[in-house]
Amino acid sequence: MDKIRIVQKLDELGIDIIEGGWPGSNPKDSEFFKVVKNLGLSSSRIAAFGSTRRKGIRARDDPSLTSIVETDVPIAVIFGKSWPLHVREVLNCTLEENLDMVAESVEFLRDHGIEVIFDAEHFFDGYKQDPGYTLKVIRVAEEAGASTVTLCDTNGGSLMEEVREATRAASNSLKCRIGIHTHNDAGLAVANTLVAVSVGARHIQGTMIGLGERCGNADLSQLIPTLALKMGYSLLGARLEERLKLLTPTARFISDVVNVRLADNWPYVGRNAFAHKAGVHIDAMLKNPRTYEHIDPALIGNERRISISELAGRSTIQYMISKMGYSDLERGVITKILDEVKRLEARGYHLESADGTVELLIMRNLGVATRHFSVLNWTVEVQGSEQTKAASRVTIEVNGEVLTEEGIGVGPVHALDNALRNALLKKFPSLEDTKLADYRVTVVDSVEGTAAAVRVFVEFVSTDKRWCTTSVSRNIIDASLNALVDGYTYKLIQEKRKKDLPQVKL
Ligand SMILES: [Zn+2]
Question: Which of 50, 181, 297, 399 could form a disulfide with 152 if both were Cys (CB 3.0 to 4.6 A apart)?
């Protein structure tokens, strides 16, 4: 179950409370609560989610509340209305009855020994309409025994000054812990959470990489490092330093599992968050990383990336070569590499995001690249009727041995990759864990004034690494095949540096 794997990662990261879902709402959530009990989590407690009782019934007759009790969780997060507009127009009840609904629901759960976090839905909108009533709702929740009252910007449209003022008012009227829950509809979820913390909120609700409906919730992968590294708060339990290093891997793991692509430029955890390309930036960076980095990427498990483009200078190439672990350079080799980079960029290559292609280019120039296989020939056949189907056959040569394999796919490139993979796996079973994570094609504006060409990017992923290769050609299949061959070759060379494989010098 994906949700269980995510819980385990969040536990390792040191998250205190994980909302596990709405018990009784669907069989999957009920199953989840059963399984999670036996995981032996070390940092995280699992909370059930639900709402205050419906109007006109007693709390003990409300199925949402009784299923929380039956789930046997230590904590419940229940949300209730705190905006008069919602009470009157959505619940269709009196402001008095809503107060009873809040109080009785919290008391009911407390009577069953469950800690209650009360989420005051639309707190900030409510505070703008009728501060007296909104504050009364949260006082009622506290008096009924809630350990934490969370102020929610449910519509995500509040501004920072509004959040500051209303959170201050809440903290003046409550003794219990105050929480903050923001949405990103105005792009302010993280900022609003930080403002609330600065005036006393100490319980933060959010999601990794800001997942969530509409524009998402406050992003924990931004909040955690900001609170820990810039504002000096202690969080994530005792082993903060060690756990912060899990931040980037955890964010990327979750993005993979839920199949939401993490943008390269995502703050802190994106691939490009610490990537440098302009020559002058790199020169300064190599003198002192603080010149162009707001924090050391290693603190949060991300890494500095130096990308090469036609702007690169000698020091950039020198840096990359030593980062790759090579020394004792032949005279003139850096000039050769720079010339090749410029030549490729002029042909329409964008090398800056293709780290695999750049490292191969450097290794070839250093004379250390080994070719483990070569493609002798290939065919692709595409058939269209109701559905397009493609079949491919690829012949490769490995150490003098020739073998041919076939593959099918939804399109020509997919079929070609499958055929190539099938052939490679026969000889290099270690490639089993190497997968294509992304494949993109763009049109190169103009290449030497001739017919349009395409630029292909392929992103590969294996258990512990990601790399990209690129190729440009007037033929999309040629470009794709080159990028695929380079991607697999890159992986085999990395492995070769650990153990021996059949090889031919290029
Ligand atoms: Zn929400």
Answer: 181
